[in-house]
Design brief:
By secondary structure, the protein is α+β, with helices and mostly antiparallel strands. The protein has one domain. The protein is 34% helix and 30% strand. The protein has three helices and eleven strands; from the N terminus they run H-E-E-E-E-H-H-E-E-E-E-E-E-E. The strands form three sheets. A five-stranded antiparallel sheet has the order 1-2-3-4-5, sandwiched between helices. It has a four-stranded antiparallel sheet with strand order 7-6-10-11, with helices on one face. A hairpin with a 2-residue loop joins strand 6 and strand 7. The radius of gyration is 28 Å and the shape is elongated. The termini are far apart.
């Protein structure tokens, strides 16, 4: 009778090599799936963050208040957009000042939002109005505590809708009907964002807002 024979050393080494190769291929497949899931989640988070920021932008404009204590309900100085808006905090009636700007941080631009506490007096309103402008130019520690970073931003531009036309708020073409020293809010605001490459959403994004009380069918 023939003697039973086992694996030779060469056969065993070949089998181990094949198993190792299969393990490496399986690991690479799992690693690729994990990376794809992480990238998808990152892109989803970036899109949701941008949508939240744009929703907050529209909410600030929708809640705009034209109060006599301040020279304007909305003001664009080329660096920051300041808005007087009604507070949406339950039990805290009163206006607050919000501001939006773009600032370089760590070599990259960021779209930022700032807001004041609820304001109770004319003096508080004037102080918050000035603080909002200061925050956009040279923020201190206290101002930075009240800011929120929205998304990376390469550049941004604003336009007002007045007199059936979109114009630069800082140009002479933007006619601002005024009563005394006060300027009336525009009928619409156009926001143009330049989002940097490498994000889930990149390129130029335009968002139009129309004042609910504006007359006519404007778009």
């Amino acid at each position: 009778m023939r003697r039973a024979r086992g694996f030779t050393l060469v056969e065993l080494l070949i089998a181990l090599s094949v198993m190792a190769l299969l393990a490496i291929m399986s690991w690479r497949g799992l690693d690729g799936m994990t990376r794809a899931q992480q990238l998808t989640q990152l892109h989803t988070d970036q899109v949701l963050t941008l949508q939240t920021g744009l929703a907050q932008w529209s909410a600030d404009l929708d809640a705009m208040l034209d109060v006599e204590e301040l020279p304007a309900a909305i003001d664009w100085d080329g660096r920051a957009l300041r808005i007087v808006r009604a507070s949406n905090d339950p039990g805290w009636a009163g206006p607050r000042i919000v501001a939006w700007t773009r600032r370089e941080q760590g070599g990259a631009g960021l779209w930022l939002r700032w807001q004041s506490p609820v304001l109770r007096s004319r003096a508080e309103m004037l102080q918050a109005w000035e603080r909002a402008a200061l925050w956009a130019q040279n923020p201190g520690t206290e101002e930075r505590r009240q800011e929120v970073a929205i998304v990376p931003l390469a550049d941004w531009r604003l336009f007002y809708y007045r007199g059936n036309a979109w114009t630069n708020p800082m140009s002479s073409g933007d006619t601002q009907p005024a009563t005394g020293t006060r300027t009336t809010p525009p009928d619409g605001v156009r926001l143009v964002l330049e989002l940097p490459p490498g994000q889930a959403v990149a390129g130029v994004l335009t968002r139009d807002w129309a004042r609910p009380t504006a007359g006519g069918n404007k778009s």
